[in-house]
Design brief:
The protein is an alpha+beta fold. The chain has 2 domains: 5-129, DD-peptidase/beta-lactamase superfamily (Beta-lactamase, 3-Layer(aba) Sandwich); 144-271, Lipocalin (Beta Barrel), CATH 2.40.128.20. 19% of the residues lie in helices and 36% in strands. The protein has 5 helices and 18 strands. The strands form 3 sheets. A 9-stranded mixed beta barrel has the order 9-10-11-12-14-15-16-17-18. It has a 6-stranded antiparallel beta sheet with strand order 3-4-5-6-7-8. A two-stranded antiparallel sheet has the order 1-2. The longest helix has 14 residues, at 95-108. It is elongated and about 65 Å long.
């Protein structure tokens, strides 16, 4: 399945309600009970929130959860009316333990009635302020060293993202990137510390939208990419060395590739 966090939450809510949805029994309640029972102990996880395997999910004393790659979770509490969907993009599988500790604590301490309105207002403000971290660097325009990257075609060596070539062009408050990626010509834009949405793969929902932002310092260009339909985020850094060669790094938040130190892959480029 390919689901967003709200969709995962809805599925979790269905399980929390023993298979009942808006008065209709979509899944037999006895099956929900059976699938969530601890079956086989997970070696070394006896102190974690999820201690056992159940039927295609994991189970603990107080919660059960479906667990996907890179921090994707469907979590249901057994004795609390709490269902959670998470698309984290994290290498550490700690979400269930964090939810058990902090969500349980929060739910167990109800907000006083006279503070409820203020609490809801604070929650809405927090949600509205959430954003992916912007790329580092304080400059919008290129200094002398970084300017060498622009208006020249760069041919890249083999790299994990299969970027074969790129031309960077400065257009006011944004950068135009004309790239050949795995044999396909792509055009995308990056905003200065502002996300620009690019529809790169209209026929493939899983990687369709790339949101890109940039920033610079005196020596390097930084690009951050958020793949909106997934939990993936990437960071690129490009600079030109004394031999007029482009040095590039790629740092994803998560990947199926064998990990490199600090999750950084380095490759190079030459000017055509």
């Amino acid at each position: 399945m390919y689901l967003t966090a709200p969709q995962i939450s809805a599925l979790a809510q269905l399980l929390l309600q023993k298979g009942n949805w808006k008065g209709g029994q979509l899944v037999p309640s006895w099956w929900i009970e059976e699938m969530g029972k601890p079956r086989v102990e997970i070696p070394g996880d006896e102190k974690k929130a999820l201690t056992h395997y159940a039927y295609h999910i994991k189970a603990g004393k107080e919660i059960f959860a479906a667990e996907g790659a890179f921090g994707q979770y469907l979590i249901c509490f057994r004795d609390l009316p709490v269902a959670i969907g998470i698309t984290a993009g994290a290498r550490e599988y700690l979400a269930a333990d964090i939810c058990l500790k902090y969500i349980k604590e929060a739910v167990s301490e109800p907000c006083k009635e006279e503070q409820l309105e203020a609490a809801e207002k604070a929650l809405r403000a927090k949600i509205n302020s959430l954003s992916l971290v912007q790329p580092e660097g304080a400059f919008r325009t290129a200094r002398q060293e970084v300017a060498r990257l622009f208006d020249r075609k760069i041919l890249f060596t083999e790299n994990p993202r299969k970027i074969e070539s790129a031309v960077l062009t400065k257009e006011g408050y944004r950068i135009k990137i004309e790239a050949v990626i795995d044999g396909e010509q792509k055009v995308l834009y990056a905003g200065y510390k502002a996300w620009k949405c690019n529809d790169l793969y209209p026929s493939d929902f899983t990687k369709r939208y790339h949101s890109v932002a940039y920033a610079m310092d005196a020596e390097a260009l930084y690009l951050s990419v958020g793949l909106i339909n997934t939990s993936y985020k990437e960071e690129y850094c490009l600079w030109v060395n004394s031999e007029d060669k482009v040095i590039a790094t790629w740092r994803p938040n998560v990947t199926y590739l064998p990990e490199e130190p600090d999750m950084v892959w380095k490759f190079t480029g030459t000017f055509e």
